[in-house]
Amino acid sequence: MPTDLPLIATFEDGQRYQAGLYPVIVLTGSYREMGRQYGGLMKTELTEEYAFLMNTITSQGMTKEEIMKDARMVPAYYPERVREIFTGMAETSGLTYDDIAFLYYGPIFLLLSSSNPEPVPASCSYLAAWDNYTTDGSPVVSRNWDLADSIMPLTEWYVLAIYRPTDGSNSIATWSPAGARPETFMNNKGLFIADDNCGREDNAPETRPEFITEYYRFMFDYSDLNALEAAINGTAPDVGWIVDVAGPDEAFVLEKSTDRTVKRTGDGVIAAANHFVDPSWNLPEPPEHSLSRYNNLLRQAEEAKGMIDAEKMMEIRDVCIEDGGSKFCHSDLGGGKYSSNHQVVFEPQNQTLWMNVMDKEWQKVDLAPLFGNEAS
Question: What is the top-level taxon of the source organism (predicted)?
Fold first, then answer.
């Protein structure tokens, strides 16, 4: 595998590399085999993160029995491929299948058990630029994963995971705390998907699969932007979401309620925060924190029009909301502290990723050689 990253460890057919401060694992085989490699290569981080989460949540009043009862429900409607990954991880990590399910929902358990378990008033933002906004016309996309500082300890266990299934599906990359549900995905065809909290209470009237976990299917199975859009349109979510989508030529946003999807496009630039923007929703004025981040992102993109490349996008993303940007920097919001737990900048055409976690440095990774096949 032609990569300039130092090789740290191997386990079965998986490899662990190091990209600056961050581990990068490359997993190859069946979904169960890839899960085994994940568990073997990240055993220390998975068990440390599990111990932290369990100790923290039980110290706040829940018993382990209550936690694990809830955790067993997590994968009830998950696709078999994801269940197989869980099974493999349980075989090699020293954790049980239920423990792995708990880890997958770990950030959510942590947020719900915190001493101030109010609904999260802010969660994530998106900015993409292309055409006459970027230096060469090709897309540069970015996302912030914003949450309460109660989950900041999870920044110690982040991993860039590369899945290379041998069943003919696409290779994909995820960026998240070890074992936790990813919300930032890319694949070897230059497709990108992430999400933003829509700021609305919108629950499906019947049981549906969890929409975010469907991102595995979207990335494994779809190879061009039109097909990806159709797949997202055809999937009714369990709750409302703002879905951030990009490919090698353009980017857009899908504002997705449980019964309707509205597509927003832009003339070379698109942004999203935590409110539906399209006027057809006929919604009340969004909260200030969301409107200001949305407007700041568009203003920053306009000021940098024609000069946006990955470096400029990182500069835009590093401006704190207090200074006219979109990044939460341990920012006071509704009586609690919030931060951009992780950020990414991605160039779909050449599959180059820049990633960081809060209070740590940006790191560049060339995904194409790690995916193991030619970009297309």
Answer: Archaea
